[in-house]
Amino acid sequence: MSNSPSQRIKDLGLVLPPAPPPAGLYKPVMVVDGFLYISGQGPMKSDGTYITGKVGETLTLGEAKLAAEQVGLTMLSTIITHFGDIDRIQRLVKTLGMVNSTPEFDQHPLVINGFSELMADIFGTENGVGVRSAVGMILPGQVAVEIEAMFELH
């Protein structure tokens, strides 16, 4: 992919929400030994509220996948706000996707694809796809999806 991540964001016409303030005692981002770690992010909308609900109860698979994509946009905003130059990211290494779901819902990987597909669009299929886990759980504030990630830097 010849375009930089920042240019791809522009080319795709993506609108980033505001970066959320920390909801506890932690750092939103941290750089260690050439890796950028991002704390868990929720699906923040442009108005500063979150997409909430439980998949299998109040949200469909499709709605949850869109929420996971929104988490990706939130994460990009957090990176730009707290780290700076998104073009210093070489590749996505690891994703942990957590889905607020009923016990019967079993398609967590399909939900987290919303995030993964966005990262592939921005960083390319080679550098935007890393290792990944997708699990179901109860999430704070009833956010639909929470995702944390690790990126390798140039």
Topology (elements, then pairings):
Blueprint: H1 5-11, E1 29-32, E2 35-41, H2 61-82, E3 89-100, H3 108-127, E4 131-137, E5 145-153
Helix pairs in contact: 2-3
Which class of secondary structure composition applies to the elements? Answer: alpha+beta
Number of strands: 5
Shape: globular
Strand order, sheet with most strands: 1-2-5-3-4
> Strand portion, in percent?
25-35%
**What radius of gyration results from the CA coordinates?**
14 Å
Number of helices: 3
What does the main sheet amount to? 5 strands, mixed
Q: Helix coverage percent of residues?
A: 25-40%
Low-confidence stretches: none
Description of the structure:
- With 154 residues, the protein is α+β, with helices and mostly antiparallel strands.
- It is built from three helices and five strands.
- The chain has helices at residues 5-11, 61-82, 108-127; strands at residues 29-32, 35-41, 89-100, 131-137, 145-153.
- A five-stranded mixed beta sheet has the order 1-2-5-3-4.
- Strand 3 (89-100), helix 3 and strand 4 form a beta-alpha-beta unit.
Concise synopsis of the structure shown:
Helix content is 32%, strand content 25%.
Keywords:
5-stranded mixed beta sheet, alpha+beta, 32% helix, 154 residues
